[in-house]
Amino acid sequence: MVRNVCLALKRLLPIFVVFPGHKPVRAIKEEFHRIAGRILRTIKQRVRELQLQKNKQLLLTLMASSQQPLQHVTEAWIHQPLDHFSRQDVNTFAQRFFVNEAYWQRPDGPVFLFIGGEGPIFEFDVLAGHHVDMAEERGALLVALEHRFYGDSINPDGLKTENLADLSSQQALTDLAVFHQHISQSFNLSHRNTWISFGGSYSGALSAWFRGKFPNLVYGAVASSAPVKAKLDFSAYNNIVGLGLTNEAIGGSEKCLAKVREAFAAVEAALVGGNVSQVAKDFGCCQIPKDHYDQVELMQNLADIVMGTVQYNEEGVLMSINELCGVMTNASEKYEEEMEAYNRLIKLSQIYRSSSEESGLDISHEKTVKDLMDTSIHSGRRAERQWIYQTCTEFGFYETCEDASCPFSGMVTLQTQTKLCTMVFGVSQHSLPARIAFTNNYYGGDNPHTHRVLYVNGGVDPWKELSVVQDRTEEGEEAQTVFIKDTAHCADMASRRFTDRCSLRKARQEIEKHVARWLETAAGEKMKKITV
Length: 532
Fold this sequence. Notes:
Keywords: Glycoprotein, Hydrolase, Protease, Signal. This protein has helices at residues 2-12, 28-33, 39-64, 130-138, 169-186, 202-213, 236-245, 254-272, 276-282, 292-311, 321-329, 340-356, 365-372, 384-395, 414-425, 432-443, 502-531, and strands spanning 73-81, 92-100, 111-115, 141-145, 195-200, 220-224, 231-233, 396-398, 453-458, 481-484.
């Protein structure tokens, strides 16, 4: 038994996964560390890795009790058109998906669709998570589809700029529609099988949009922390991070925010004052900033540490807001008064480097651009180039700091971020407003007029600003939002834990009630059709 468990877990390790017909892939984490100045995305990936680790532990428990969840999971591929909207383009790509039949009550049980976002999917996406808990209770077939151009669902030349033209949310939604047909045919499904979609963050937006654009295919959708409104200058992100640092219910304080502001002002003053070499030494930089752009990379790196802490508060990665504010305000730790806040920020960066096993902060802007322009697929796990392309062509989402309420450095501007669109992809900065306006017109922004879509958001999560947080329902209609006052990004998507806050437990119960009601309503509608 122990040997079998170890072999099963070896299959699922995200760092050493080998799939049939594919070369072994290197560590996911490595790819995210290659992009200088992108600590926030590295933290996001570490959250994902931690979730996978917890799920492996859960799998061990199940297998030790003689359950064999893996035997019900299948990995497969579907060939999709590269361009669904061109009859002349006959090129295709292979798209990966997973199916878990363990809980399915044949033949009429529902189908729970987990939608992949800007990264690879894993077998765990149909083995663990709140949607899997509900699938077990509702007898659902579980399926997960990887997003085109991410993970292993990309052609060898897919990262070339001319080929990225086929990477868009509209193409991704049509992939889902084709996949729906493929699963329906493969499992002999009919109108009796009710589909519910699930996703978080970008894939949460896709879940909402799939229901909005293909209401005949998916009966209801759960959209967790879903930024359904595209936004060029997302300055509100950092404003909400600042508010999170003052939230006393989760360990913040006004003093904490003041110290963070003071620290960033001190670093910027030191850079402007010419003490570049000393700043680089103090913060463990891999290079001495050679120009303004390197300095911006440094300031973004430092801001990312705080931003990531707030966005993923209490997820067990890096530190919590309570711990960060402890570092910034702890009176028992004495520093030279004139440089107190500056030195406390140094300690924060040391904690980050220690926890991430990074030898230093890579602040080379030249390296950032070089890495983003690399079109080779080293491991099938790259994501930064693709995601930045989507921000340039569809979404924006640039977390700027030009607003006076931003607690970080005003050096991080819209101009410094959007110039990558032109440098890397040849996308004009002037075209961005029209591209983002199109996205909002196409999907409806944060007023999407969707029915049976449940928008779930955390009160600490900065992305709530671009989601739907207030019900716009008529009297007597079902609520379409769940707001979790003191949780962060996508917290509701994990399986139930004993350590969950009371508000998070209640939120999951609300989600379960909505899903149960949808399935009951769908069953009732089908019965009416039969009797008519």
